[in-house]
Amino acid sequence: MASSKLILRGAAAPSVKNAIRCGSTFTNLTSEQFMKKPTNEPILDYKKGSTERKALEKALEEYASKVIEVPLCIGKERITRKLEHEQTMPSDHKHAIAKYTWATENDIKNAIETGLEAREKWHMKTLEERADILLHAADLCAGKYRMALNATTMLGQGKNILQAEIDAACELIDFFRFNAYFALDLEKYQPISTKASKNSMLYRALEGFVAAIAPFNFTAIGGNLASAPALMGNVVLWKPSDTAVLSNYIIYQILEEAGIPPGVISFLPSDGPVFGNTVCDSKHLAAINFTGSVPTFKYIWKRVGNNLDKYISYPKLIGGNTVCDSKHLAAINFTGSVPTFKYIWKRVGNNLDKYISYPKLIGECGGKNFHFIHPSADMDSVAPATIRSAYEYSGQKCSACSRIYLPESQWQNFKDKFSAIHKQLKMGDVRDGSIFLSSVIDGKSFARIKKYIDAAKSGEDGAKIILGGKCDDSKGYFVEPTLIQVTNPESKILTEEIFGPVLTAYVYPDSKAEEIVRSIKDATPYGLTGAVFSGDKDFLYKARDILRDAVGNLYLNDKSTGSIVGQQPFGGARMSGTNDKAGGPHYALRWSSPQTIKETFEPVREWRYQSMD
After folding, report:
1. Looking at the structure, do residues 299 and 325 belong to the same domain, yes or no?
2. In which domain of life is the source organism classified (predicted)?
3. Taking a C-beta distance cutoff of 8 angstroms, is the pair 452, 502 a contact?
4. Residues annotated as catalytic (active site), given as ranges
C-alpha cells in the first residue's frame, strides 16, 4: 500500500466563533447563553442507504487503502524520522493503516520545555477563551471529521459501526462540551467577601506540565485525557496507545484546527517505559492522567514517589517513566492497566525529592465487573443486557461484565435465553455492517485471553465451557464469545481481569442471595462497575447499600456498561483507579490549583490584642 500524508475530508463545519452547539441546536452567544447546559450528542443510526452510512463507507474505503504517516508533534515541529512502527487492523493483522515513530528521551524533554514556554501565554487566557476552543473542536467532530474519527476507530481498534459512533463521535463531542460547561460552572464559585475585604478564587493551572497516557479501547478517552487539563490552562504531553495512534492523531489535528496553540499539547507516540521515566524524572511534573493497567499505574506512582524531592510541587496522579523524571511534572492523566499505573505511581514516589510540587496521579485501570442476578429478576432483560455488557467490543471495555452470579432456580432459564442470542452473534471484519463484534486488539491480548479459555477447557478449578471457546489468529485476532461456568467462587477465571469476550458464571443456592452479594464486594481487588438485577425492590436497595464500597458505578436492573457523559460520571476506586469521575462536574477541579486572594480595605494598624489590656 502506498504511503500517504493524512488528508481529512468532510462537509464544512458551521463556524463556532461566538457560538455554542447544544445537541443539534446552534445559538448566538450572550454572557448568559455561554453557560447553557449542553445536551448529549445524538447517535446516528447508519441504516443501509442512509447519508451517514454512505459517508462512513467512503471513509472506510479511503483509510483502508493507504498507510498514513503519523508524526511526533512538538510545538510547530512535525517529526517523522524513521517510521519504524506500524498500526495494523486487528481483524487483518497484515494490513497496516498507519506508520509512526517513537519519541526519544530528548524528544520528550524538548516537548516539556516547549510546553512550559507555551504555558506562559496559555494559562493567562480566560477560561471562556479556552472553552471556546473546545466547543469549536466539538463541532468539528460532529461535522467535518465525524466519519474520519469513526472509520479510523473501526479499522484501527476493531469497533463495529455503533461502538465507534458512541465512542469516537458522541462521547468525544460530549467530553468537549460538558467539560467546557462544568469548568465554567466551577468558576462561578467565589468565597464570601465582607465590607472589610474582598475575597476571590482564581482557578489557576497546575504549575508544570501534565502527562496524559491513553488506552486503545476508547478514542474519546484519549481526547479527554489530553484536552481536559488543557482546558484548565495546563500544557500536556499526550502519549497515545500504539494500537490507537491514527484515531488519536486525528483528534490532535482537530484540536489544532480548533485553535489550540502550538506547544500546549504535544503528541508523542512513545515506548511506555521511556515516556514514563522521562516525565516522572522531570521536576516540573504536575500530574499524570492515566487510563490503563493496574501494574503500570502502580509503577508510575512509585516512580513519582521516588522523585518527590526534585518536584516543584506535588504532582497529581490521575489514573511511564521519562515524564516521571522531570522536575516540571505537574500531573499524569492515565487510562490503562493496573500494573502500568502501579509502575507509574512507584516511579513518581521515588522522585518526590526532585519535584517542584506534588504531582497529581489520576488513573482509571479497569476491573472485574459483575452482574448479580436475584431469583426475582426479569430474565428476558438479564440475557440481552448481559450479552451486550460482556461481548460488545469483544469485552474490551473497562466496564464490561466478566462475571455473573446466578441463582440455581434461573440457571437453566438463563442458559436457554443466553444461548438463543449467542448463536445469532456474528463476528468478522469491521467493514461488514452486520457484525456484532470483531477481533481483539492485538496478539498479546489474544494470547492472554486464550490462556484463560484453555484453562477452562482443562477443567481448572472445576471450570467448563458452556458456549464458545474457539480462538483463531490466522488472519485477525478472533476470540469467540465464551461462557464459562465455575464451581469455585475464588477461581482465577472468576476473579482475575481477562479483558476479552469471556464471561464466567457462578451458580449459587437461591437461599444465599444476600450472602453472595456480601462476598462479591471483596472477591476481587477491583472496584469499577457492577449491576444488580432484581424484581424485589427491598432486596435491590439492600444490595445497593451492601455494595456501597464495592464499585464506583452501580447499575440497578441495567447492564454494567454504557455510562454517558453528564449522566453517569465514570470511575472506580480500589485497584480500578482514583475515581475522579470523568464526565462529571468535579473532574475539571482536578486540573486546577486554586489560588485564594484577599484584598483588605481596612489595613491592620494595631498589633496588640484587646485581651492583653
Report:
1. yes
2. Eukaryota
3. yes
4. 364, 398
